[in-house]
Amino acid sequence: MAMTTGGNAGGPMSEINVTPLVDVMLVLLIIFMITAPLMSHRITVALPTANPKVATDTEQVPPLDLAVKPDGSMYLNDVEVNELELKQRFVSAAGGSPQPELQIRADKTTEYKLVKKVLADAKEAGMVHVGFITTGKE
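Above: the chain's sequence. Below: its structure in token form.
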């Protein structure tokens, strides 16, 4: 801080000390000079262009709704199925284009190993879109 001794009645000094400002600006200049070359990519790669497939109303496929009860019984679209039938339905659904989403509704008291088995069967069949249906916070 600049101070004066004596002078015109000891009033406040009207000059600003710019030395700290210059120091900060030089540090920022050095930082930007070092980091600016790092911001550009040196290796150029021809990136592919995105061409998203827009689904029309005719391509909409209803999802597969799978309900799993605590006793191990499974209902696919409200029809009871056993494990073999479920695997066959997964294979036929996975071969379709577009592939339907598998929505799993498992009772909260259902053992996880039953749900894990269903997920493994769906993955083995080639199902890609799998979701879980839950309720909101109680």
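The helical segments are 19-39, 83-94, 112-125.
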